[in-house]
Amino acid sequence: MKLCMIGTGYVGLVSGVCFSDLGNTVYCVDNDKKKIESLNNGKIPIYEPGLEEILKRNYKAKRLLFTNDLKKAVSNSDIIFICVGTPTKKNSNSADLKYVFAVAEQLKKIISKYKIVITKSTVPVTTGDKIEKILSRLKSKKLVDVVSNPEFLREGEAIRDFIYPDRVVIGTDSNKVNRILRSLYLPIIKKSSRYLNTSRRGAEMIKYASNAFLATKISYINELANLCEKTGVDIKDVSFGMGSDERIGERFLRAGPAYGGSCFPKDTRALIDTAKKFKIDLSIVKNVVKSNEKRKILLIRKVEQILNKKIRNKIITFLGVTFKPNTDDMREASSIPMMNFLSKKNCKIKYFDPSGKKKEIDKIKNVEFCKNIPLACLKSDLIIIHTEWNVFKLLNFKKLVKKKKFSIFDMRNIYSPSKMKQMKIKYFGIGR
């Protein structure tokens, strides 16, 4: 099939590359000329393991094309995916849909023969209705079918999630469209993925409901971790015991920092906002958001406790700063508020992250990016393991720090407290 992905951000690029690898011809469109030029040179703007290799392979095979020419891409495609960003509006909880609607307005001017228009961006319920209204101004209403097909891609594991998804959700009432899209996803469905055809509004709601539930699991286990610390219980034992119950499941039950990234923070807020518009009080989701914000403050206070409130002029190292491993995404990462706090206390902050130096951190005073782990850890008073990259899991801190007294704050519970005790290292975990 011939596909057009509008937007070459995380969702659009990963989906476009993976669809081309299934044998489809895919046009990836973006109004950022520099980004398109970079992609045509085989350079990707995001950190996602394995993506560059697949991109180059399909680009060489001419199944994958990058362009700024929306009209050409749409005209040569049968199915149009809208993959632009839906960030949170300033001073609001609602999703900013201006980019989505701008695309719809452009499509209205371009489409001259039948197309399937799909929202892959995460959008609130009824967004498809509004897109359909915009496109209904076409000379013939029969020229388009508007569909919701939410993505469920995890950063760092996106390629696997695309090829082996838990489910494929298609929101349409059209039998014709359903047959076409089922055919598009058939190579994936054959690998035992569930295929769900629901209403368009149902598909939109499924995405938000899923993300809000996962955010709830994270906040719940983080709050339990607080209780475990007071009662002398290891949260890892609790997580294992809970997760072994198949009704609950083990995923997203790892205590740690507040949840971050591009999805959970904005999607929980957007769901609350949508419910408000329909005069429904989502009290559970509201409290999840509150709990997550409190989490950021609580962990800063724990850093103070570890250093006995003697923070000034201390050398503090962050191992990992992204919100999760195998991604370069810094959106809503807990490391940023922690660094801001420590910077104001005149600490010298060093950090190393496998995904490289971060522009989001450059503006914070007293922060130094280190090219390797030894430089980051040298003479440190406190090492904070913020992100559980694999390279951090087997370190000899005694050799790295070269200091008699130092502490480790393991925010991901990578290390064994008993082993740290044996090595006479002052160790602090989460909920243990």
3D structure, described in words:
This protein has 432 residues and is of the alpha/beta class. It has 3 domains: 197 residues, 3-Layer(aba) Sandwich (Rossmann fold); 87 residues, N-(1-d-carboxylethyl)-l-norvaline Dehydrogenase, domain 2 (Orthogonal Bundle), CATH 1.10.1040.10; 132 residues, NAD(P)-binding Rossmann-like Domain (Rossmann fold). The protein has 18 helices and 14 strands. A 6-stranded parallel sheet has the order 3-2-1-4-5-6, sandwiched between helices. Helix 17 links the parallel strand 12 and strand 13. Helix 5 packs parallel to helix 6. The protein is globular and about 75 Å long.
Provide a compact summary of the structure.
With 432 residues, this protein is α/β, with parallel strands linked by helices. The protein has 18 helices and 14 strands.
